[in-house]
Design a protein that fits this description.
Elements lengths: L30 E7 L6 E7 L5 E8 L5 E5 L4 E11 L3 E9 L2 E7 L7 E4 L2 H13 L7 H17 L4 H7 L2 E2 L2 E2 L6 H17 L4 H16 L22 E3 L5 E3 H5 L5 E6 L6 H15 L5 E6 L4 H8 L5 E4 L7 H5 L7 E5 L5 E5 L5 H6 L3
Helix pairs in contact: 1-2, 1-3, 2-3, 2-4, 3-4, 4-5
Length: about 375
Amino acid sequence: MNKTIFPISIAAFVAATGLFTSCSPQSDGWSLRGKIHGLDSGHPLAIEAPSATGGWYVVDSVHTSSDGTFSYTSAAPAPYPEIMRLTLPGSGNIYFPVDSVDCVTIEAEANSFATKHHINGTASARRINEVDSIIRVVRPDDETGMTNLKRQLADFITADTTAIVSYYIINKSLGDKAIFNPSDAFDNRIYGAAAQVFANFRPNDARGKTLTQAYFEGRRALGKETLPAMQTIELPEQGLIDIVRYDSRGNRHSLSELAAKGKPVVLSFTSYDLDPSPAYNIALNEVYSKYRNRGLEIYQLAFNPDELQWKQVARNLPWIAVWNSPTDGSHVVASYNINMLPLTYVIDSHGDIVERVENPADLDSAIRKHI
């Protein structure tokens, strides 16, 4: 996808609930339902897809009915997740995700089509809607706002299991400038995280390879050593950096205070909505059960976007389980070189980070060396 300019607005539009928002399964392909307030019968809407050359082409078109509603169903399922856009000629675009036989809903105002809209119907659509709502309130010339925005968007990327949401975010622009620049030190790590999402969940997707290439080109521009693979990033560049978060019962937990107790600590980064999460926590539980009587502690930070989902899992875990909410930002992501989830660091009894563990099968051997 090219670096498209996505218009912004300081006013977020809250969609009303209507019959048009309901989606029924479509056997033929993915579908789009919606309503454009302020339009009557016969107004054309273009449904567009990204072209291989970086532009957009019209897939099909629909016309609004007398009350501004519209409906479209593709001829075949989407073969892979993709970002499409709905265009009202002369009024801009609304971007939305599709996959397989998804049904996505859109509600918008005709006189502020690109800036007052609500997308729903699938988890990816809701995630993108939330991303857009965050971006709308930021001014491109507000340096502090842009810094905070990047950290919030980084959290969405690290929690993404679809890859398409990460790709959408990494290609977003404000005004005429891309939000993320792979030649910027902080942004480069976010590019690496987005590329790792593709490596984890869509390893054969060409878009992931494009992100990986941009990541390495950015590192070269920054004067970093060219790495043969992202997985060779070993340890945080600044050593142990404190993390202070709260568990599901509201208790405060400081990583540096825990590491200062003279016990080995497993620092775990994960998100409970990821497919590998259950197996990963089983592996953690095995080493915790084996070594807890010898002083082992686990400090697990989850990047779940949904607090309720995080609490449902965290309250049943025997170790310290805390949450990195969207408002906590992405400082941890940058500080600990988090370019994949789940990810584990081993902290020895002196409070030093001594190993980075990416394969849960290596946890036992890595911990055993420092018990």
